[in-house]
Amino acid sequence: MSNTGNRLYEFGEFRLDAVARLLSRGGVTVPLTPKAIDLLMVLVEQPGRLLDKNTLLATVWPDSFVEENNLADNIFKLRRVLGDGESGRTFIETVPKRGYRFVGEVRAVRQAPEQASEPVARVAAERGHQAQAKGQTLLTTINPRWPINIFWLVVGAITLVAIALGVSAGRRGAAEPPRILKTELLPPENASFGDIAVSPDGKWLAFTAATGSRVQLWLRSLAGEAANPVESTDGASHPFWSPDSRFVGFFASGKLKKLEPGGGLPVILCQAPAGTGGTWNQENVILFTLLGVPRIFRISATGGVPEVVLHTDPGQTDLHEPFFLPDGHRFLYLAMSGAKDVRGIHVGSLDGKLRQRVLELDSNAVFVAGPGSDINRGYLLFGRDGGLMAQAFDAAALRTLGEAVPIASRLGTVQGANISYFRRNFSASANGLLIYDAHTDRQRSQLLWVDRHGKPLNVLAQLDNVSVPFLSPDESRIVVARKDLATNNNDLWLTDALGDNPVRFTFDPGSDILGLWSPDGQRIVWSSTRNGSFDLYEKEVSSPGQDTLLLRSDEPKFPLDWSRDGRYLLFRQISPQTGHDIFVLPTDGERKPFPFLHTAAMENGGALSPDGRWIAYNSDESGRYEVYVESFPTHGGKRQISPAGGSGPRWRSDGKELYYHSLDGRVMAISVTADSGPFATGTPTPLFAFRAAGTMTVPSYAVTRDGQRFLLSAIIENDPRAPLSVVQNWMMGVVR
Fold first, then answer.
1. Residues 411 and 451 in one domain
2. How far apart are CA 214 and CA 176, in angstroms?
3. Residue 690: is it exposed, middle or buried by C-beta count within 10 angstroms (0-12/13-18/19+)?
């Protein structure tokens, strides 16, 4: 008789029988409490993997709220019975402030003595087959070498069985409902998951993944063997599918693009710097939103010029994450605001006439039709209180039904440039497949100092939920935007150069970001949404003065740089017609702004040379972002600096070296000669690589005057190999 259902593990002189829930040593049972044995089983069945404290608490105590000291107490009990520390051996490793890892060598064995040991991964696979045979929930980890096909073969087999049972039960007058199936999906080798999007037919998964400092779009057939990166998709984000699952849309290099899985290169649809979500209806209309632009745009799926569909309502600061409802005319979207009565999930329409709030929260949301024949009856999926929720919803009447139901206790977010909200990382198909990230600590954004070679010097641990830092002229202080998780509001904070003693600088209910120091270090200019669009404000640093409106207009504006003599302030302005442009605001006289770079291309990242004679910036006029330099304030002597893509230029204080961030994530340095005669440069030299917690519109780093230290806003991977959770027939856990 086969005993493949047995789950026996050996480590050291111990044997763990996971079915009988017994731990023995030399044939003698070791007494353990039920929760201690549960905890040991979780650790032993995932050897070598770091399990964070929240994961362990939710797994061992799934239906209870317990203090973290309960976990620590049970870890202590396990270590005592396992003899951790005796003769220098260790079974359970503590990773400070993160969690625990089982580091002992685990052998998964069969009960029959003649059968040899086998890998834990194989035991997990056999558990899945046993669960399938018994009609139980499938829980298995997918290895990238034999990954998703096993799961889908199981799903296919169960589907056939379900059909057969349905026919048989139909003769008896009752059909057995589909069962919930669960599995996990590991990221590609040496990569970490980012944004995810499953196709409506449930056959494809599009996702972004970071390989080192390089982020690309990846595609995986959920019946295939491996995931593959897509060429020409560096910097990709926010993938979304056409309703027929033939195309996937995404944002990359300041453009909205689409591609067909399995063939061809991406096709550019329009300019779209820093996209924050897209959706596609049956009439080939695409809606999308942009970071810092409080509007929702529409465009044909064949390309063209975007048109504005919706603006923010009074009190709202940002619009994100549109998602079409079944009629293809109305859509969900997330409106952000510091006021609870204004922010939340709203419904809009293509004619711009509908604006109705349906939920008060700060999460992206999608609609999935229910199992019945009415496609307008289904569920809204969204994040709340750290987990994934499902809310019954009538898409025709635009009303919620009953109370929201938890689907998963933990839901991860995607780190990136947009700190006005945290994007919950989940996606659902139209046929019952749900994929989500259950790891809340997969990655984090971090400010840190490194030397010229990328060696870490200091981590600014006190500063969390922050964006791009700006260093004061004397290098003694930092100004940075910081998000308040309680109010979902961004304010500027001042700290010393090591991130200690943070002090709040702005206090209004709008979003305040991108603080820029004046050349003498006495004032700060920044962008604020307190009047709707992003306007420019300024305030003295050392005195408790009032915020002063510096420049007001309907177009969003963001400060870039200040000439060393204080005469010119550079800022970036966004218009629906030309996208991102670089403007100049004189600080004396009439103080009337004028455009310096105002073309059909996207111009960002303007930085003035120390002598004020040159401006470095990035533009996508060639089809991808490159760094250029030309004379200032009059045009002339334009030349391309980056040979293979780049953004975010910065100057050394003596003007003899220029830095930029390459498309593959490396900080590049290039020597400059411009004292007399023509402007001349050397060959770009790579210094180090890092994954920027920002977009190509703003440099994610600052550099000291001597060019020897860099302050980075970087994404740090905590658990890059953490899998995604996959659930088939998830609605069966909601329908009552």
1. no
2. 47
3. buried
Domain of 63, in residue numbers? 8-118
**Confidence band of 698 (pLDDT split at 50, 70, 90):** confident
Per mean pLDDT, which range of 70-79, 110-119, 329-338, 557-566 is the poorest? Answer: 110-119
Quote the CA–CA distance of 731 and 431 in Å, as a whole number: 10
pLDDT tens for each residue of 699-734: 889 999 999 999 998 888 777 888 999 999 999 888
Gap between the Cα atoms of 618 and 626, Å rounded: 5
Shortest CA distance to 205 belongs to which of 218, 215, 192? 218
Same domain, 237 and 353: yes
Q: Are residues 361 and 448 in the same domain?
A: no
CA dist., res. 148 & res. 732, Å (int):
22
Residue 547 to residue 492: CA distance in whole angstroms: 12
For residues 676-686, give the mean pLDDT.
87
Across 318-327, 587-596, 651-660, 703-712, least confident range: 587-596
Instruction: Please state, in angstroms and rounded to a whole number, the distance separating the CA atoms of residues 239 and 200.
Output: 13
CA 119 to chain centre: 33
Tabulate helix, strand, coil % of the chain (nearest 5).
10, 45, 45
**Looking at the structure, do residues 51 and 154 belong to the same domain, yes or no?**
no
* pLDDT of residue 269 exceeding 80: yes
Asked if 724 and 435 count as a contact pair (C-beta separation under 8 A), the reply is: yes
Q: Which residue is it, tokens 């629906």?
A: 576
Please provide the size of the chain in residues: 736
Domain assignment present for residue 430? The answer is yes
Q: Give the chain's domain count.
A: 4
- Among 179, 128, 180, CA closest to 150: 128
Q: Residue 518, Cβ neighbours under 10 Å: how many?
A: 18
On whether both 50 and 67 belong to a single domain, the answer is yes
Q: Do 102 and 29 have their domain in common? A: yes
Termini Cα distance of the chain: 39
User: Are both 275 and 300 inside the same structural domain?
Assistant: yes
The least confident of 342-351, 518-527, 582-591, 671-680 is: 671-680
Cα–Cα distance for residue pair 493/483, rounded to 1 Å: 10
Tell me the two tokens of residue 232.
């020409």
Q: Which of 99-113, 166-180, 442-456, 656-670 has the lowest mean pLDDT?
A: 166-180
Q: Is 327 exposed, middle or buried (0-12, 13-18, 19+ CB in 10 A)?
A: middle
What is the DSSP pairing of strand 626-631 with strand 639-640? antiparallel
Phi, psi of 156 (to 5 degrees): -60, -40
Integer angstrom CA distances of residue 88 from 10, 76, 85, 484, 534 = 19, 17, 5, 45, 60
Q: How confident is the model at residue 151 (pLDDT cuts 50, 70, 90)?
A: very low
Per-residue pLDDT of 622-649, as tens digits, reads 878 899 999 999 998 899 999 988 999 9
Give the burial class of 346: count Cβ atoms within 10 A of its Cβ; 0-12 exposed, 13-18 middle, 19 or more buried: buried
pTM above 0.85, yes or no: no
For residue 3, tell me if it sits in a domain: no
Per-residue confidence (pLDDT) for residue 346, from 0 to 100 = 97
Q: Which long-range contacts does 505-513 make (Cβ < 8 Å, 24+ apart)?
A: 505/479, 505/539, 505/541, 506/539, 506/547, 508/547, 509/338, 509/339, 510/317, 510/338, 511/317, 511/318, 511/336, 511/338, 511/420, 512/481, 512/537, 513/419, 513/467, 513/481, 513/558
| pLDDT-wise least confident of 136-150, 230-244, 566-580, 633-647 | 136-150
User: Is the same domain home to 397 and 485?
Assistant: no
pLDDT of residue 429: 96
Parallel, antiparallel or unpaired: strands 255-260 and 263-271: antiparallel
| Tokens representing residue 520 in the block | 């003498």
Maximum distance among all Cα pairs of the chain, rounded to whole angstroms = 94
Helix, strand or coil for residue 671?
strand
pLDDT digits (tens, 9 = 90+) for 600-617: 888 888 999 999 999 999
